[in-house]
Amino acid sequence: MKGRWFSLLITLLLAMGWSFAQTPVRGGTLQIGADASPSGLDPHVATAFASFIVTGQIYEGLTEIDERLRPRPALAESWTVSQDGLTYTFKIRSGVTFHDGKPLTAGDIAFSINRVRDPKTGSPIASRINLIKDVRATSPTQLVVELSQPFAPMLIELASIAVMSEDYVKAGNDMQRRPMGTGPFAFKEWVPDTYILLERHPRYWRQGRPYLDALRYNIVPDAATRQVGLASGTYQFLPNIDPSLAVTLRNTPNVKLITTQDLAYTLIGMNVSRKPFDNPRVREALNYALNRQQIVQAVYFGNGTPAGPLGLRSWASPTSAFPCYNTNPARARELLAQAGYPNGVDFGMIVIGSNKTVVDAAQVVQQQLAQAGFRAKVEVLEQGKFIQEWRNSNFDTFASINGGNADPDGYLFRTFSTGGSTNVFKFSNPTVDRLLNQGRTTVNEEARRPIYARLQVELACQGPIAHLVYGTLFSAARENVQGFKPIPTRSLIYLRDTWLAR
Amino acid sequence: MMLSFLVKRSLDLLFVLFGVSVLVFLMIRLIPGDAVQIMLGANTEITPEGLAALREKLGLNKPIFVQYWDWLSAALRGDLGQSIWTGRPISEEILQRLPITLELTILSLIIAIGLAIPVGVLTAYWRNSSAEYLIRLFSITGVTLPSFWLGTLLIFLVFKLAPGWQSLGYVPFSQDPWGHVSRLVLPVITLSLPMLAGLSRVLRSSLLDVLNQDYIRTARSKGLSERVVLYKHALRNAMIPLVTVIGIQVGYLFGGAIVVEQVFAIPGMGRLILGAINERNYPLIQGAILLVTTAFVLINLLVDLIYAKLDPRVEYA
């Protein structure tokens, strides 16, 4: 009897605690432990991840990508698309102000999109929207975007274009150093290698948001230091951590892990313009030699899924659709022999050294490949050198991690189309090119699906990339950090909904 | 005599600085990958034209000799240029970081020297006792432990023993005096321990050497107290090799500071230079290295002058 009352009391208390925990409180500074210092804060130019997690709080786009990787309204309240799929008319949200107090107009948005398109800006995002023919503001609250051909991922790509104030940019402000947008947090201070401080945008258009007074990105290069810093409460939030750090933090008191499937994936890239990888059989053999499940276990501690070319949402084909995903070293040797390499092959593999997960994966892959006669000479390179070799296609193979995109076109087109902007493999295949074009110009999602299914089969075994693993995206936070939701794109937009329980 | 020595050394200094500036300038441009590529990150989709546009914006498109001349002529006028990312003058960036590293290294130096002298003397006197073996074991460990490892170990130890202790990052003294001091403790231990170990070993062996010299026997036979023999005669002479080693160690200390700052997330010169190299922030690397070199050469000069004070036999030529 007594016990029942007691448990009822406990339940009541828990329920009360729960409801308290569910009511957001305003105030406080979130101490973030970031692993790298951003190289500039102009989101049209600096696209490295260290910049992106900061600028994503300062700027917004017409649309934004939600946790299910769908585009949804942000600065655009709504939109209509013409019958032929070529004209997008956006209704711009009213009552939005920049951090300097000026109201947002459609003109600012047109200016921002054109700034990205302008070759003088040198924006890496420019190629994503090269199907845009014209952008113009027809009124302060209406924007018209015209395309040269229908472009299915248009709304998703627009999410990546940060909207800047035309006046502010034209006044000569250096956007790399003094960013200013409409986002939930405004830039306050940047002390290089030390911290970046953002403060709450008091006139933010989402009622009551953000809850936090400030975000402080502490730059802490050492993983062990970040770990202790979180455990001791010096930092309250570590975004997007390595799986190995997640495993060590798993049983830390007052620390919780926040997870979702990652859009980013590890890969082995092969240079199709070099021997022996010019031969599709060799590329297929390499796939047979891999054991992706083993990589999931050894590198991701079980937290990941073997990757096909597409890993997420409704687009991914099951890996059973790809015969070469069944590990078979004997078959690999056979294919190698058929390709004219009965004694196996020697080749180089460069590895991006800044990412521990990739370095670990490369070592496991090297072992696996050796059993099928692929003798890889692994060379771990510093990031700057890696990027240069990568960009110049100066490699036999490489191991790296790719960011991935919410829309299949965003990833596949630039990577696999002939002359694509990240086609460093020199891969060219007419069937693939045709399917890629079909995929991006077919706007109806149901009609796109079979196109990408076909593409994945084309690419999985003989493409220039052996996709390894889509990992689990881990962030770690103190127990009292509430309201944050992770997004597979690694964006931190939900910091605007985050609050600190007392 | 002394004056001409100083003039000669100052000329040397100019020559060294010029050489270093050329070397640094060439070397950092030989590292593959430039600021633009770092800014874009891996896996970005930019056209060669886009890359060229960005390089032009950052002034990286000019021929290397032009870049060097632009930089040198400005530097001679006292302008070290601007940081690529923050746009702030290099001199300002350095002035903000330098005091942090100086505080760290000077404190470590004082602690290391202050402890090395008694430890060295005691081990020389307690030769072959078990206490001496213990201290020697400690010094060998101290010399061989890599500082990144020692630093990480200390962080974890302190976290286990005193979870509330704020040991990471940096707070200016003016803002929070206690927070400032508490964050300095671990990095200073990390930096001074290997140095303490090294210095006390040098002092011990040079003391043992000196204590076997004839003039010590003479001093003792004159009936001088052991205290006077030790402090007036032996220690002073045994200090000469120690000063040389300290001079060299200061260089290592700076190298250690780079690692320690990285581990403890302290925004000093080490982080500044390391960050600048990672980001290919050329003007910043040049300015910072030039400054560190100058400091190094000046310290060497200072060591030479101290020699003369300790040992009148040293002549300046």
What does this structure look like?
The complex is a heterodimer of chains A (502) and B (317). By secondary structure, chain A is an alpha+beta fold. Helix content of chain A is 32%, strand content 24%. Chain A contains 15 helices and 19 strands. Chain A has helices at residues 2-22, 49-58, 106-117, 154-158, 166-170, 223-231, 243-249, 280-289, 292-300, 329-338, 356-370, 383-391, 408-416, 430-441, 445-462; strands spanning 29-34, 63-65, 71-73, 76-81, 87-92, 132-139, 142-147, 185-191, 195-200, 214-219, 237-241, 255-270, 304-306, 345-352, 374-381, 397-402, 465-478, 481-482, 499-500. In chain A, strands 11, 12, 13, 14, 15, 16 and 17 form a 7-stranded mixed beta sheet that branches. In chain A, strands 1-10-9-8 form a 4-stranded mixed beta sheet. In chain A, helix 8 (280-289) runs antiparallel to helix 10 (329-338), helix 13 packs antiparallel against helix 14 (430-441) and helix 14 (430-441) runs antiparallel to helix 15 (445-462). Chain B has 317 residues and is an all-alpha fold. Chain B has 12 helices and no strands. Chain B has helices at 2-30, 35-40, 48-57, 64-76, 90-125, 130-144, 147-161, 177-211, 214-221, 226-264, 269-278, 282-310. The model of chain B has no long low-confidence stretch (mean pLDDT 82). At the A-B interface, helix 6, helix 12 and strand 16 of A face helix 2, helix 3, helix 7, helix 10 and helix 11 of B.
